[in-house]
Backbone:
């Protein structure tokens, strides 16, 4: 049996230790868990332009208010310009309230109250009786200063003749639609009898019109209503709202 010398044994021992150390290192590397991947940085949120969910589309309340004010100012300017043109021709634009003399509204209110008290007194109204008619309540009191003046006034026409081809030379002008036909006539001093030199054709009774002419404090009676004023017609046109 060959005996190994001390130097040979020492070299072998060093080699064995080196081999064991390498194997241990390899096993440890294989058994170590993998490191988790690094998290991606959050994406930067860019601001979104344009309308968002819940946003109101269209004009704001302030926009609508500004539009109304602008339209009102335009109408006022147009009216002022028209009044200046009328004044240049000696014509004055008036309203229905200007046909009533001072204190007439109070007198009219008292007359309406008396009329209502009679109708609802409990006695009732017999069909076909004198009370079963459209009663014209009011007076023939007029504003004398208007007599002979050239005016322009809006209103609804009530002709005495009807028909597709009816040519009208006389009709009533009233302040509200349906008067004298579907509802009682206005007071006499809120009813105007209009006389035209040339016949005109009434196309649409529901269309309000502007009447221009010379007004007189002259009473006219008709089967539809009595009028405290008369106008000699010089012009008629549609009333635009």
Residues:
């Amino acid at each position: 049996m060959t005996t190994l010398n001390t130097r040979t044994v020492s070299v072998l021992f060093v080699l064995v230790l080196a081999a064991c150390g390498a194997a241990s290192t390899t096993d440890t590397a294989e058994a170590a868990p993998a490191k988790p991947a690094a998290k991606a940085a959050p994406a930067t949120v860019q601001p979104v332009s344009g309308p968002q969910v819940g946003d109101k589309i269209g004009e704001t309340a302030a926009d609508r208010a500004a539009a109304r004010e602008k339209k009102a100012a335009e109408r006022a300017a147009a009216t002022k310009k028209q009044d200046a043109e009328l004044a240049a021709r000696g014509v004055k634009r008036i309203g229905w309230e200007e046909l009533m003399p001072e204190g007439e509204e109070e007198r009219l209110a008292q007359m309406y109250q008396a009329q209502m008290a009679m109708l609802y007194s409990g006695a009732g109204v017999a069909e076909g009786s004198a009370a079963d008619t459209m009663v014209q309540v009011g007076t023939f009191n007029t504003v004398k200063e208007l007599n002979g003046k050239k005016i322009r006034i809006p209103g609804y026409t009530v002709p005495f003749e009807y028909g597709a081809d009816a040519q009208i030379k006389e009709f009533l002008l009233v302040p509200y639609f349906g008067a004298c036909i579907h509802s009682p006539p206005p007071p006499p001093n809120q009813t105007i009898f209009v006389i035209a030199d040339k016949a005109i054709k009434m196309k649409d009774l529901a269309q309000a019109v502007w009447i221009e002419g010379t007004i007189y404090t002259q009473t006219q009676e008709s089967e539809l209503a009595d009028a405290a004023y008369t106008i000699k017609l010089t012009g008629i046109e549609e009333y635009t709202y």
